[in-house]
Amino acid sequence: MSRYVSESLRTKVENRANGICEYCLITIEDTYFGGGIDHIISLKHRGQTEFENLALACQPCNRSKGSDLGSLSESSKFLVRFFNPRTDEWSENFRLNPNGEIEFLTEIGEVTAIILGFNNQVKNC
Ligand SMILES: [Zn+2]
Hints:
Strand 5 and strand 6 form a beta hairpin. The termini are far apart. 28% of the residues lie in helices and 18% in strands. The radius of gyration is 14 Å and the shape is globular. The protein is built from five helices and six strands; from the N terminus they run H-E-E-H-E-E-H-E-E-H-H. By secondary structure, it is of the alpha+beta class. It has one domain. A two-stranded antiparallel ribbon has the order 1-2. A two-stranded antiparallel ribbon has the order 3-4. The chain has a two-stranded antiparallel sheet with strand order 5-6. The site of zinc ion has 7 residues, from strand 2.
């Protein structure tokens, strides 16, 4: 199980994402710390270093997610997985409000927005 993401694989992931964090949709170029390649299912949980399991993520999203796969939903108290950029539609789980904040629409959106700190990222940078 390799952590190493080759330069060509990294470029493929960055191009698929159009340079945008696949979780919070910030343009990586506009961030101070840049972005990284996230293992959607972390290596710790037997995710693989392969194109379909990788996502472009800004540093606050990547750092906050770490090797986690999900969290407890405040509304249902159930363990809920995070948003998966490969299998979930962003607009079904989140929306931008007029203040530019990300609101969640589902439990998947809820746990993802809270744990990744979508609306706290200015403080986390
Ligand atoms: Zn992000």
